[in-house]
């Protein structure tokens, strides 16, 4: 992994701030709220989240990163999600480059669990944001 830990931690921190403004998820019998988070974000995207200053700031931050850094953020999200492992890193990066080289910021910000998945991805590499100033 070549992306600076500080960059990943900044994205995690800002992504957490974004979702903190959403309505809390509540599980109902027979339904998992976490599964519906993407739908909630889609609805927010239609009318508010994508128009917020915080969303635009994070989108611009990610968009201003070098393409390789953007691709590694996507791959790290997939590692954190469990789609790939740290051992599959090169493959994850290659697939991320093929699928999201032109729209990494938009793709990443459409992930409702972005902060958690990035954090889990770091854990897979035995890294943490604990000692990083964001």
Description of the structure:
- With 134 residues, this protein is mainly α.
- The chain has one domain.
- 62% of the residues lie in helices and 0% in strands.
- The chain contains seven helices and no strands.
- It has helices spanning 5-20, 37-47, 53-64, 67-81, 89-100, 104-109, 114-124.
- Helix 1 (5-20) packs antiparallel against helix 7, helix 4 crosses helix 5 (89-100) and helix 4 packs across helix 7 (114-124).
- The chain is globular and about 35 Å long.
- Residues 40-48 have low confidence and may be disordered.
Largest sheet: none
Proportion in β-strands: under 5%
How many runs of DSSP E, i.e. beta strands?
0
The count of domains is 1
Whole-number mean pLDDT: 83
Rg is: 15 Å
Shape: globular
Distance between the termini: 19 Å
Query: How many separate helices?
Result: 7
Structural category is mainly alpha
Poorly predicted tracts of residues: 40-48
Q: What helical percentage do the residues reach?
A: 55-70%
